Amino acid sequence: MEATYAHHPAGGPGSPFDPPVLLRSSRDLLAAVPYLLGFRPRDCCVVVCVTDDGRVGLVARTSLDELAGDGLDARTVARAAGRVATRLALVVLYTDRPRERVRSRADAVVGALDDVLHAVADIEAWIVTPDGYRGLDCDDPSCCPPAGRPGAELEHGEVGAAFVVAGRAIADSEQEAHRIRPAAAAVRDRAAKAASRADRARAAARDATPDVPRDHGMPATGPGTVPVPVGTWRAEAYGVWCDLVRQAAEELRAFPAGEVMLPPARLGRLAAALADVPVRDAVLLSLVPGGREAADRTVGAGARGGADGSADRGAGSASGEVEVATARAISRVVDPRVGVPPDPATADAARLVLEQLVAAAPRRWHAPALALLAFLAWWRGDGWLAARRVRESARRDPSHRLAGLLAGVLEAAVPPGWVSAAGTGAEARVTEPRVG
Q1: What is the spatial distance between Cα 386 and Cα 379, in angstroms, rounded to a whole number?
Q2: How far are the Cα atoms of 69, 305, 308, 381 from residue 314, in angstroms, in the given order?
């Protein structure tokens, strides 16, 4: 058995320049799992599917406690595997509990996979403990000693070295892998001041534009704020986003993400801007290949008047154009017939901007950025990171609409269009390896 995994640092689809890592055996797949996830799995079940063309097509993880319920998660993972042309599925338990206590949970997943795959694929069950690893069904002590083979074989072998050379790191836990650490106090102070100024300018812009109601709870216009039409304010705010993404993309080509520092004042200004729905929608659309026109129209329509286009008679036509352009762009995310994955460079740059915004800006501005990060994670096929960011967004603002929509998408296990078109499930992290 050989499978090729193409490395992509942020968890999204691989780019043509990603170096492949060749996996020749089930043990190689076991060694690759922490690198595929980005962290060391604990107390969970991981399913790895290898496709007919030798790709790692699906990596799914669910907690052992969830598997102890009515089997729903086992069936969900099996349905995801069924969308992949699977020739080998590994079911791996990561636990420090005795094998006898968790064996039934592996059996539930194996049984669900067997029902879906209908014996067209080999299914192997493994267990990895702090003391070692072994096949659950292996009775050959020369292959799998009762206490298991040493875990160091997996962690310090050729596969791990290949991933390290490719730039892949492993966090100690999922929480550590996905935690956004606060920026330095001086950075947070500058971003907070810029966000307050931008919010006052937004209030002034809406006050200065006819027929545009002020948002509930919007602060009064501050002293020294020069009002501009709301469309102008939105276009300028969207321009800040475009400039930051462009800067992030340029710096990521030269430096690791941890060494890139974006301007705190511009991050603060963007944080306040994302509270404006048309600006947030334009930001989302700008991430979609071919969506830049829809993004420009989304903020450009505001120059004619309010968010609903009520300030002039031509706005109705403009609003219709925006809706058509937006529908065309969104179809490239959700429609399997035309769905495309995100551009890796754009997605990496956008993720960096949004994560640095969350690190720098006050918590009251986090919800839109976290919801956009959830959208990016879902689009890239990283279901559990998307769910985490949705929960974080909802904690900041339980009424945030984009986070609510994404929560429904995740609950229904709706995959992005490119995943459906490729026959890959959305309930799990999706990799896009290529045969080298």
Answers
A1: 9
A2: 57, 10, 12, 40
Q: CA dihedral defined by 395, 398, 401, 406, rounded to 10 degrees?
A: 50
Cβ neighbours, 10 Å, residue 243: 15
pLDDT tens digits along 271-313: 999 999 999 999 999 999 888 888 988 887 544 433 333 333 3
- pLDDT of 35-47, one tens digit each? 888 888 999 899 8
Written as one letter, the residue type at 50 is: V
Burial of 85 (0-12, 13-18, 19+ CB in 10 A): middle
- What's the angle, vertex CA 201, arms to CA 197 and CA 207, rounded to 5? 145
What pLDDT is recorded for position 199?
A: 92
d(CA 172, CA 167): 16
Contact call for residues 125 and 108 (beta carbons, < 8 A): no
- The span from the CA of 142 to the CA of 313, in Å, is 81
| Residue 44: strand pairing partners | 63, 94
Contact 395, 364 (CB under 8 A): no
Mean pLDDT of the region 205-226: 49
Residue type at 196 in one-letter notation: S
End-to-end CA distance of the chain: 15
Q: Which pLDDT belongs to residue 246?
A: 96
Domain 3-178, CATH class in plain words: alpha beta
Question: Using an 8 Å Cβ cutoff, are 286 and 300 in contact?
Answer: no
**From CA 397, how far away is CA 387, in angstroms rounded?**
15
Distance CA(205)–CA(235), nearest Å, equals 12
Mean pLDDT of the chain: 78
Indicate the domain borders of the chain: 3-178, 185-361
Residue 140, Cβ density class (10 Å: 0-12 exposed, 13-18 middle, ≥19 buried): exposed
For the segment 146-160, the average pLDDT, to the nearest whole number, is 84
Over range 139-144, report the average pLDDT. Answer: 83
Closest alpha carbon to 64 in 28, 108, 31, 22: 108
The confidence band for 385, taking pLDDT boundaries of 50, 70 and 90, is confident
